[in-house]
């Protein structure tokens, strides 16, 4: 007789609820606020303990660099820290519409006009196709991980298991940055379209503050109100939010159908000339930014912990919705640049203004209404996913575990959702859309590249059985894949006239991927659903994400570097010591859950 550790989908969330729940005698009020709730770790017990922890920063950093989590820890031990479990109430139908609601509206109505006018021109559909291909590859990777590890942490949990705590922290910090910036940018665009619906200029409802720097001088109180309203709905329950999303998303589908049909009836092929006003470089620069339009799909992976059968439903919801959305985006982008010349597009409310320019002034109100609905569901689903990301990050103590608490009645992470909402509202109040889009895109591309790398590690490395020789081969081939991908991007963006750089970097990428396929045996097969053509598709995902990342401008990398530096300062001063202490607790919790599971009906 032996014990089988049950997967979350096999037990329908019962272990999550049961393990997370605390006994009636220890029940505490959810609405509490104390130092111990925010910093329960021994390193923060008092100033003396904190000074002692700082003096051991070096050894602790080495420990965290080498530490990797496990499936059991992410699925069983960490949810105990939420005190109450997230409720399993979603199906593939819900996930598909959550994917649609979070993605459609987040970008196509927001930044298509901006990038068509200033970067890609009429070739903007090719930008969406390039970004869509990269996003689709990433969705394959996320689908396999979410099937195997149905955790609320999404990419954070995947990286923590395969690449270790330190890289997972960098990903977690960028996930939170992406969540904050993405929600803020979408809320500001909501204001622009609302102004258009009222027949006013897109910036007319904002408050001009000339004392502030350009890009931060248009204050947006309406965006703050919209963020708070959408998050309030998400806080009251996942099931209700999902139902509201798919019902209202039917309106978005109807508006999209109208835009495509009515747009093509007013299309002028002459508007497609010149097709490449800024060359291929402009197309890929735009692709790197419009990638933001696809970022909502990773929210679906965070809902795996609340999905009834994640092994089946998550791949259906992820891959199905992303395939359809890529086609829709390309067609809608083509419609826009055929209705109006690219150099006349409004960068804030492109579709509404384009219809007005064709003589269909009444249509701009319908488009604005549909765009508002799409952006509202994007904020609604974003509030769900961002709250789950934040919950798992807090469960790992990378931010205070107070934000991991799940409300016993609603089954939702109220504190985590409020943290993201309030922070996003502060950003949305000040920052313009162009500043926000580049920061969000670079964080997203960085995370997606890391997740694809983590999948290759998961397939080819098992810490208990992989021989050291195969580990060295794996590290070598992965290093060459990453280095050659960076080389292709760097050579492209340095504007060379020759071809010798590609003659070196592209064969290196191909040979390193081929070497991984031939000389390193796979150590693990996916449990239910797997990425096809491994290692080729994950390797291509790494290359495309890094290529698009390199296509962003210099300022985006400066902002990314500054944000990363601040993240590292926080990690050294707080996150490192909190996670080090929590890791000691993790080991005990994981063993306790294993014993609990073995003593239950799952003994075989």
TrEMBL record:
<feature type="transmembrane region" description="Helical">
    <location>
        <begin position="316"/>
        <end position="342"/>
    </location>
</feature>
<feature type="domain" description="Cationic amino acid transporter C-terminal">
    <location>
        <begin position="529"/>
        <end position="578"/>
    </location>
</feature>
<comment type="similarity">
    <text>Belongs to the amino acid-polyamine-organocation (APC) superfamily. Cationic amino acid transporter (CAT) (TC 2.A.3.3) family.</text>
</comment>
<feature type="transmembrane region" description="Helical">
    <location>
        <begin position="90"/>
        <end position="111"/>
    </location>
</feature>
<feature type="transmembrane region" description="Helical">
    <location>
        <begin position="123"/>
        <end position="145"/>
    </location>
</feature>
<feature type="transmembrane region" description="Helical">
    <location>
        <begin position="243"/>
        <end position="264"/>
    </location>
</feature>
<keyword id="KW-0472">Membrane</keyword>
<feature type="transmembrane region" description="Helical">
    <location>
        <begin position="284"/>
        <end position="304"/>
    </location>
</feature>
<feature type="transmembrane region" description="Helical">
    <location>
        <begin position="207"/>
        <end position="236"/>
    </location>
</feature>
<dbReference type="InterPro" id="IPR002293">
    <property type="entry name" value="AA/rel_permease1"/>
</dbReference>
<dbReference type="Pfam" id="PF13520">
    <property type="entry name" value="AA_permease_2"/>
</dbReference>
<feature type="transmembrane region" description="Helical">
    <location>
        <begin position="439"/>
        <end position="457"/>
    </location>
</feature>
<feature type="transmembrane region" description="Helical">
    <location>
        <begin position="414"/>
        <end position="433"/>
    </location>
</feature>
<dbReference type="GO" id="GO:0005886">
    <property type="term" value="C:plasma membrane"/>
</dbReference>
<feature type="transmembrane region" description="Helical">
    <location>
        <begin position="362"/>
        <end position="385"/>
    </location>
</feature>
<dbReference type="InterPro" id="IPR029485">
    <property type="entry name" value="CAT_C"/>
</dbReference>
<feature type="transmembrane region" description="Helical">
    <location>
        <begin position="528"/>
        <end position="550"/>
    </location>
</feature>
<protein>
    <recommendedName>
        <fullName>Cationic amino acid transporter C-terminal domain-containing protein</fullName>
    </recommendedName>
</protein>
<feature type="transmembrane region" description="Helical">
    <location>
        <begin position="556"/>
        <end position="574"/>
    </location>
</feature>
<feature type="transmembrane region" description="Helical">
    <location>
        <begin position="469"/>
        <end position="493"/>
    </location>
</feature>
<dbReference type="GO" id="GO:0005313">
    <property type="term" value="F:L-glutamate transmembrane transporter activity"/>
</dbReference>
<dbReference type="Pfam" id="PF13906">
    <property type="entry name" value="AA_permease_C"/>
</dbReference>
<keyword id="KW-0812">Transmembrane</keyword>
<feature type="transmembrane region" description="Helical">
    <location>
        <begin position="166"/>
        <end position="187"/>
    </location>
</feature>
<keyword id="KW-0813">Transport</keyword>
<keyword id="KW-1133">Transmembrane helix</keyword>
<dbReference type="GO" id="GO:0015189">
    <property type="term" value="F:L-lysine transmembrane transporter activity"/>
</dbReference>
<keyword id="KW-0029">Amino-acid transport</keyword>
<feature type="transmembrane region" description="Helical">
    <location>
        <begin position="499"/>
        <end position="521"/>
    </location>
</feature>
């Amino acid at each position: 007789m032996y014990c089988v550790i049950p997967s979350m989908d096999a037990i329908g969330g019962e272990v999550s609820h049961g393990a997370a729940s605390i006994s009636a005698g220890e029940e505490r009020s959810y609405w509490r606020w104390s130092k111990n709730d925010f910093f329960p770790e021994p390193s923060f017990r008092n100033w003396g303990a904190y000074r002692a922890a700082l003096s051991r920063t070096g050894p602790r950093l080495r420990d965290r660099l080498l530490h990797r989590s496990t499936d059991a820890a992410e699925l069983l031990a960490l949810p105990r820290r939420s005190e109450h479990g997230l409720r399993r109430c979603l199906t593939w139908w819900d996930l598909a519409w959550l994917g649609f609601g979070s993605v459609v509206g987040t970008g196509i109505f927001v930044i298509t006009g901006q990038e068509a006018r200033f970067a890609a021109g009429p070739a903007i559909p090719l930008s969406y196709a390039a970004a869509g291909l990269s996003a689709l590859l990433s969705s394959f990777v996320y689908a396999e991980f979410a099937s195997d590890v149905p955790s609320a942490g999404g990419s954070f949990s995947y990286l923590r298991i395969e690449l270790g705590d330190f890289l997972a922290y960098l990903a977690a910090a960028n996930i939170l940055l992406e969540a904050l910036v993405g929600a803020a940018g979408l809320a500001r665009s909501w204001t622009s379209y609302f102004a258009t619906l009222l027949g006013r200029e897109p910036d007319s409802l904002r408050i001009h503050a000339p004392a502030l720097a350009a890009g931060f001088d248009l204050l947006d109180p309406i965006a703050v109100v919209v963020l708070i309203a959408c998050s309030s709905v998400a806080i009251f329950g996942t099931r209700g939010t999902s139902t509201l999303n798919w019902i209202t998303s039917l309106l978005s589908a109807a508006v999209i159908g109208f835009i495509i049909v009515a747009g093509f009836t007013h299309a002028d092929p002459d508007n497609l000339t010149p097709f490449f006003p800024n060359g291929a470089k402009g197309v890929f620069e735009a692709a790197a930014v419009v990638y933001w339009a696809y970022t909502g799909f990773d929210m679906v992976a965070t809902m795996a912990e609340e999905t009834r059968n994640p092994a089946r439903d998550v791949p259906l919801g992820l891959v199905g919705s992303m395939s359809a959305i890529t086609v829709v985006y390309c067609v809608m982008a083509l419609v826009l640049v055929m209705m109006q010349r690219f150099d006349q597009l409004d960068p804030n409310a492109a579709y509404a203004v384009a219809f007005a320019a064709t003589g269909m002034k009444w249509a701009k109100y319908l488009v604005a209404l549909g765009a508002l609905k799409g952006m509202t569901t994007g904020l609604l689903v974003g509030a769900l996913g961002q709250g789950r990301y934040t919950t798992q990050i807090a469960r790992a103590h990378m931010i205070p575990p107070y934000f991991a608490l799940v409300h016993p009645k609603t089954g939702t992470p109220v504190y985590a959702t409020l943290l993201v909402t309030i922070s996003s509202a502060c950003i949305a109040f000040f920052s313009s859309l162009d500043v926000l889009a580049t920061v969000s895109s670079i964080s997203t591309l960085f995370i997606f590249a890391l997740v694809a790398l983590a999948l290759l590690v998961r397939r080819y490395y098992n810490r208990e059985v992989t021989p050291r020789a195969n580990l060295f081969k794996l590290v070598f081939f992965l290093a060459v894949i990453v280095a050659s991908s960076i080389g292709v991007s760097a050579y492209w963006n340095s504007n060379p006239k020759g071809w010798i750089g590609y003659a070196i970097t592209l064969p290196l990428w191909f040979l390193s991927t081929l070497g991984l396929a031939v000389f390193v045996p796979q150590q693990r097969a996916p449990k239910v659903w797997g990425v096809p053509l491994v290692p080729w598709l994950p390797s291509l995902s790494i290359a495309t994400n890094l290529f698009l990342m390199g296509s962003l401008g210099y300022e985006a990398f400066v902002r990314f570097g500054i944000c990363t530096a601040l993240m590292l300062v926080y990690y050294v001063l707080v996150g490192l010591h909190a996670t080090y202490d929590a890791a000691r607790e993790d080991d005990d919790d994981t063993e306790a859950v294993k014993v609990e599971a073995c003593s239950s009906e799952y003994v075989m």
